[in-house]
Each structure stands twice: as structure tokens, then as C-alpha cells.
Amino acid sequence: MGVYDSTTKLASDIKGSKEYKEFKKYMKVIKGNPKYESILNNHRKIQMEIKSKNIKGVNIDKKTLKIAEDLKKTISGNKDLSRYIECEYKFTSMMDNINKILASAVYEDYK
Length: 111
Description:
The structure is a single chain. By secondary structure, the protein is mainly alpha-helical. Helix 2 crosses helix 5 (79-107) and helix 3 (34-56) crosses helix 4 (62-76). It has five helices and no strands. The chain has a single domain (18-110), classed as YheA/YmcA-like (YheA-like fold). It has helices at residues 3-16, 18-31, 34-56, 62-76, 79-107. It is flat, with a radius of gyration of 18 Å. 86% of the residues lie in helices and 0% in strands.
């Protein structure tokens, strides 16, 4: 089996994986609800702001922390939102691991 055949098989296996199917299922739930989309967009925005400030060594104001905490509570208190976050994490973790495996195949050649 050639590299492209293997890659095509891998793509098919990914689409057939439990992680992808669950993620896709909950993504449809989120995309079908503008309120959910807004909550998740705000959550991501505030998380990026906090990460950026942490990297720059800037103090995070109480208002930002309060917004982040409120969004976290909203998400954890909602089955669909919390399940989406969980499924997204599992799927992206799987993809990260696959990328690491693929990169490790040629890593030694780049040293």
C-alpha cells in the first residue's frame, strides 16, 4: 500500500472514529443554536484573551476573570455545551496524537 493509499485509509478511519462521530454530532447541535454558538464564541474569545495576557505577563483584571468564570459555569451547566467541549477535546487530542506519530516518522532526519 502506497503512502497516498495509507493516507486515504487513515482519513476514512478518522471519519469513522467514535471521537469524530461524537464531535460531529454535537457540532450540529451547537451550529443549530445561535445562543450556544454565541456562548462558545465568547468563551473562546475570553480564553484567548487570558492566555495572551498570561504569555505577556500582564495581570488579568477581575472583570475578565468573572466573565470567564460565568461562561464556564454556563457551559458546565448545559449538557449540550459541556458535551460538545468534551467531544471537541477528545477529537482534537486524537488528531494531535496522529500528527505527532506522523511527524515522528521523519523527525530524526531533521536533527
